[in-house]
Amino acid sequence: MEEILPKLKKIISDNFGVSENLIVPEAHLLTDLNLSEIETTDLISLISKEFKLHLPEGLEIDSMQTVQDLVLFIEQNINEL
To answer: Is 66:73 a contact under the CB 8 Å cutoff?
Structure first.
């Protein structure tokens, strides 16, 4: 998580205008970071490109609600290349 979180903060901050101070593991994407569902989908796409992830078929984007959920998703999928 040490390497993932700073990259994730930069992606969210640069693309969605969210202050990096607000991007903490327990931050909720919709309520704390004010990302819409469409922005969350865009974020998943950006993450897959940045971390070179293959998005699994049938991915439940709704299940990713916090920054920590995204970190876990990246950790679980980064080694499946």
So the answer is: no
Which phi and psi angles does 77 have, rounded to 5°?
A: -105, -15
Question: Out of 44-48, 68-72, 75-79, which region has the weakest mean confidence (pLDDT)?
Answer: 75-79
Q: Identify the structural domains of the chain with CATH numbers, from first to last.
A: 4-77 (1.10.1200.10)
- Taking all residues of the chain, what is their mean pLDDT, rounded to a whole number? 90
Question: 6 by DSSP, 3-state: which?
Answer: helix
List Cβ neighbours of 3 (8 Å cut-off, separation of 6 or more).
Answer: none
pTM for the whole structure? 0.87
What are the structure tokens assigned to 72, written together? 């876990």
Residues 6+ apart with CB under 8 A from 41: 61
Which residue has 């293959």 as its token pair? 54
